[in-house]
Amino acid sequence: LSGLHATSVKPYTDLIEGLRKQGIHSDVHLPQIAVLGEQGSGKSSVLDAISGVPFPRGEGGVTRCAIKLVMRGAPSHAKWRCVASLAGEAGSEREVDGPARLAAEVAALAAQLTEARGLAFSGETIVLELSAPDAPDLTLVDLPGLVRDEAVPPEEVDAVNGTIANYLVQE
Length: 171
Hints:
The protein is 34% helix and 19% strand. The chain has 5 helices and 6 strands; from the N terminus they run H-H-E-H-E-E-E-H-E-E-H. A hairpin with a 7-residue loop joins strand 3 and strand 4 (94-96).
């Protein structure tokens, strides 16, 4: 099964990711799995269980922007490798030292998008490109939770809803 995957599936997942890196995803919808739900409903926990990657979790709006995890299987002798970046922002790439540091890197990038700009949510995306021998060839997107709190300013609700809509309108 592994050999069949390497020859029949992997070339297509690599092609899809190459197209995504070239920016074609803005014109052609490429396969990915996006998770939608209210704040605190367990979206990040589900993605964590599927991927084995520790997504930020906690009470309330922990996911403050979209987090796209692009996982690719690597040869059995390869080491775990992850690069975190802000989508479309050249020079934002950060090599992540290991799985234990991943949540901290995501939190730092999210703070760069939100706290530094005085926002609670951002419509931008954090991209995690991970390769490891045991990684499935999947692209997962952790979206901010739907906001039901009337105390949240309307412009922040609009930012969350706009981010969700951008991912979920794709066929």
